[in-house]
Structure prediction request, 113 residues.
Amino acid sequence: MTQQPQQQQIKEGKSTAIAAYLTFVGTIIAISMNSETKNTFASFHIRQAIGIHIVYFLVLALISGFDSWLITIPFWIFSFVLWAYGFIGALQNRKTIVPLLGEHFQKWFKTIG
Prediction:
């Protein structure tokens, strides 16, 4: 029994997609892993992961000036939810757009991956 082309594409790109979510360095490694094959599943998750990591660093810069848990906790939760949403999507073999910003990540980083 042969696999459908889309399922084969997902199977081949899954490890790269997962690596993209494991720190910013993992994203750089995933880009390198995907540079020759240009797997569409991996590229999708690489773009999502880059966006999530950038949002994380922007949130980190924004909240570093606050000294209140009531302000910082919601930002950390927001960053974690975005990361978990994308990571779980990669684990479940789905191209899941992260809430609020995922469509923008796909547009902004279309040349990456």
